[in-house]
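FAQ: What does the model actually see?

It sees only this:
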Amino acid sequence: MPTRPYPYSLRIGSSCLVILLVLALTSIVGSTQTRPVIRTEADFLRAMEELSNWGRWGTDDELGAANLISPDKRKAAAALVREGINISLSHDVIQEDAVDGGTYLNRQIMRISSSGASDRYQYTGTYHGSIHSHLDSVACHVMFEGKGYNGVTQESIEETGGCPQGSIHALRDGIFTRGILFDATLLPNRASPEGWMPPGTEITWADLEQLEKIQGVKVSEGDVILLYTGRWKRRAALGAWPTSDGVSGYQADVAYFLKERGVSFIGHDMYNDVSPHGFPPEVGLPLHRLALVSLGVSIFDNLDFERLAQEARRLKRYEFLFTAAPLRIEQGMGSPLNPIATF
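And it is asked to produce this:
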């Protein structure tokens, strides 16, 4: 495990205590009987250091856990295409203000004539947040104590006016690997009668392992894992709700699952982290920081899995070819996009 260039552990207690904690917890990472927990700020700080992938693929690495997608992994993913069914995983771009987003796409017609028409698009606000389907860059968009994945610094962003290392441009060749849908509504006695997870419902490491058994899948190195909670179904039925009213999503201990299995990307139909999560403001969104900053696992936010979940249930198959191509934005800190699942 690479040594972190800055000491999170100093904030937990004495050096000896930290060493003992790290050794003890490292020995049980991967155990299905005893799991490290991430419920306090001290737990979070320990996990940030213990799970770090900094330097694993070199000090100049810009891909993070995407490095785990090998040529053989891509060929195996291609072999999952049997029915020839394509499904968009992006939600329609929101073009009006809403309480769950605060940002929207402003589309303006620029020209209409007998030879054709053109328009232009402008985000009022940002595509980041809790409403537009997008992919976060592995570095820069989320940092902790002024540093992002593999050591990129706040100062370097200020100096260059962009993301100098680990920007979305690093993924310009696209993502082509196996995707796995985790349908949280299949967890016994957890979903609402209408078929969605109540806001604030957390999905833990143990829940993902239970879903593997229920769905007959097993996450392996280089996979993209996608969590369905029924967010868009609930929104269509009841209307938009502010995220302060709760979000069903991953609990922070899922970071250990990501490390153990070698997950390359994660995605969700909201912003991945459960809310409320119980951590202080200094931690912010704990899974975002653990995944992006420490593990180098890039995050898809606000995807739409309604059709995917229906098709997976019909086929009784929760693995598929996953493809995505972010925009080629040099020094960009993310990109709106339309990922595709193919059965």
